[in-house]
Amino acid sequence: MKQLSDTLLLQSYHKAIELNLSQDFIKQIEEEIQERSITHLVDKKFTQVG
């Protein structure tokens, strides 16, 4: 994931949620987003509830 651009990382995150992929995989993406300090770029309509 380190090699992905910020844009591609965020697109991957949105697609993983849309496709209801593994929660572990989504969590890994979320951790990378937090590590890069780009959480403000995550579109809130795509965030998961609970």
Report a brief summary of the structure.
Helices cover 52% and strands 0% of the residues. It contains two helices and no strands.
Tags for this model:
50 residues; mainly alpha; Helix Hairpins; 52% helix
Contiguous helical run count: 2
The CATH first-level class comes to: Mainly Alpha
Uncertain residue ranges: none
Strand-pairing-aware structural class = mainly alpha
CATH topology value: Helix Hairpins
Measured by DSSP, the beta-strand proportion falls in under 5%
Mean pLDDT: 88
What's the number of extended β-strand segments? Answer: 0
Determine the fraction of residues in helical runs and give it as a percent range.
Answer: 40-55%
Shape: globular
Description:
The chain has one domain (6-42): Helix Hairpins (Orthogonal Bundle). 52% of the residues lie in helices and 0% in strands. It is mainly α and 50 residues long. The radius of gyration is 10 Å and the shape is globular. The chain has helices spanning 6-18, 23-35. It starts with 5 loop residues before the first helix and ends in a 15-residue tail after the last helix. The chain contains two helices and no strands.
